[in-house]
Specification:
439 residues; alpha/beta; Amidase signature (AS) enzymes; 11-stranded mixed beta sheet
């Protein structure tokens, strides 16, 4: 049952499909393909079927229905789902008592959590493998990485195990696997969705990290964002900003074949697209490495070395070894530099409504590439420079699929906007989908 969340919600509300049959079909799909792909870590079959029966009873009773009634979704194992373990890919752990705020909001909108999904240990790798559950497999080519850290969600969605998914993005963790799986992913502005952190988040996580949805169709994302972007007292960062769309010149940056195809689709939809250079891009990408490196020393790397997998440890040590060593004073100065870079990008977006470019300038990499030491990680980081730079600056973005290349692998690009420009991003993503020619 590989359809979009909005399409599925309409069919269930019209009583063309029952919620129970919908949930059961996705559970059957998990049983069929997950033994090979290892994207889903646990299923929530019993409670999902109970929720589906409740949804069908609500439909039978008539009246106003919630917008996502009966639609099944997966949740990455670093986001809380009540009565399940938020493992972060590590051994041990106890079930949590409450849903993360936006998971509770999705339940209120009628959506049904159906499974938890895989990630690298502590979400600290652009490949999905960990000490608890092992590796997730790319469904298009098992020799290639599925990306990370929301790799389980992207693979589950691409292979029909759920109608949408919820992951997180701290340095490309939504956009990278979405591009490799041929699905959409929205990285909202940090603060757009209320979150709840198991431990007090350090500064870079407060400024850069956000959860967000993955979907099969552009039309799904506004529906999901509206349901998820509701207040919760657990997150004082929550900002009820407008999601209205605007239209202005789109800057094409680091032009690739995929990005040019997306630019042509935007032009066909009436957008103006101009080639440009992103301001101080390498500095922002380096700053992401520097800030995250400093904060990982405050506990995460120790936990990774003690409890995590050898692969994630080696990959993280090589990647963050590329960061500049900071002391406390250097860290404070680096945070100040982030403000200066953010201001430069704000001026850029005063002239361009959005930026269009690749998620990565590199071809998909083989499984194990990131275990090749510092040079391999330098290649990946440099390929992702647009992705990590915009994460560093707390900007929203959407990963947009463009079909497949001559090898049968997905092609994806990203749109990036100024803070709170989700409406503009999603309108442009819809225009690309409506006007794209197969790549």
């Amino acid at each position: 049952m590989i359809v979009g969340a909005a399409q599925l919600a309409r069919a269930i509300a019209a009583d063309e499909l029952s919620a129970r049959a919908t949930v059961q079909a996705h559970l059957d799909r998990i049983a069929e393909v997950n033994p090979t792909l290892n994207a889903v870590t646990i299923t929530l079959a019993q409670e999902a079927l109970v929720a589906a029966d409740a949804a069908d009873a609500l439909i039978a009773g008539g009246g106003q229905l919630p917008p996502l009634l009966g639609v099944p979704f997966t949740v990455k194992e670093n986001i809380d789902v009540a009565a399940t373990v938020t493992s972060l890919g590590l051994p041990g752990g106890a079930p949590v008592q409450r849903d993360a705020p936006h998971i509770a909001h999705l339940r209120a909108a009628g959506a049904i959590p159906i499974a938890r999904t895989n990630l690298p240990d502590l979400a600290l790798r652009w490949h999905t493998d960990n000490a608890r559950h092992g590796a997730t497999v790319n469904p298009f080519d098992a020799s290639l990485s599925p990306g990370g850290s929301s790799g389980g969600d992207a693979v589950a969605l691409a292979s029909g195990m759920a109608a949408f998914a919820v992951g997180s993005d701290y340095g490309g963790s939504l956009r990278v696997p979405a591009a490799l799986a041929g699905v959409y992913a929205l990285r909202p502005t940090p603060g757009r969705l209320a979150q709840a952190f198991g431990v007090p988040p350090l500064m870079s996580r407060q400024l850069m990290a956000t959860d967000g949805p993955l979907a099969r169709r552009a039309e799904d994302l506004p529906l999901l964002l509206t349901a998820m972007a509701q207040p919760d007292a657990r997150d004082p960062r929550f900002t009820p900003a407008s999601a209205d769309a605007a239209r202005g010149p789109v800057a094409l940056v680091l032009a690739s074949d995929g990005a040019r195809a997306a630019a042509n689709a935007l032009v066909a939809a009436g957008y103006e697209v101009v080639e440009a250079e992103a301001p101080r891009l390498e500095e922002a990408a380096q700053l992401w490495l520097d800030l995250v490196r400093f904060e990982l020393r405050l506990g995460a790397m120790t936990r990774l070395r003690e409890e995590g997998s050898d692969g994630t440890r080696r990959s993280a040590e090589a990647l963050f070894g590329l960061g500049r060593p900071l002391d406390g004073e250097g860290y404070a100065r680096a945070l100040g530099e982030r403000y200066v870079l953010t201001a430069a990008w704000s001026e850029f977006f005063d002239q361009h409504s959005l930026l269009l470019g690749p998620v990565s300038t590199c071809a998909p990499w083989p499984v194990g590439h990131d275990l090749g030491g510092a040079e391999a990680l330098r290649d990946e980081w440099w390929g992702f420079r647009l992705t990590v730079a915009t994460a560093c600056l707390g900007l929203p973005a959407v990963s947009v699929p463009l079909g497949f290349d001559t090898r049968g692998l997905p092609v994806g690009v990203q749109l990036i906007g100024p803070c709170w420009a989700e409406g503009t991003l999603l309108a442009a993503a819809g225009a690309i989908e409506a006007n794209s020619m197969p790549t």
